# Entry
Amino acid sequence: MYRDGSPDNSITEITKGVAGRIIAIALLVLVGFTTVNYGFRFGYTLFCADTVEPAPGTDIEIEIEEGETADELGERLYENGIIHNAEAFKLQAGLYRLSIYPGTYKLNTSMSVREMIRSLDMTEQEYNDRLSREAETVEDGGIIAGGDEGTETYMYNESAAEGASDDGQQQNE
# Structure
């Protein structure tokens, strides 16, 4: 007790001060741990070959519309379960300067984001060459099935070829 008769509250005040500091430090440690954990996971997703499924994965055809941006494509790939993180796709697409052109592309759930960007990325000349090859192939009765980095696989369309050979046989008769 103090001389004036009031109770001694210094122990209570000291206890409150220490408890407040402990709680503040614990919250700072928790926020720091959460931030580091999120940063590590994001960095891992961004720079490591993280895939949705192990090989062989699932083939998925994706249609890119005229004027579609990398951000829109990243959101769509994420919503369809093809990638884990749309933000990582957007960031990598910017870092690697992804040039997107309209068309149908074949992706696989066992591909990393970097591999997907490689298969989607092309120059304007490559895009024009692709369009001309597709036009020539359709005229010849073939179908472009896709391929790796600039190589397409052409499949022979038998029904188109049979129609052409039937016409040829009829002309000979």
Q: What stands out?
A: The helical segments are 10-47, 70-79, 86-95, 113-120, 124-140, 158-172. The beta strands are 59-64, 103-108, 142-146, 153-156. Confidence is low (pLDDT under 50) at residues 144-173.
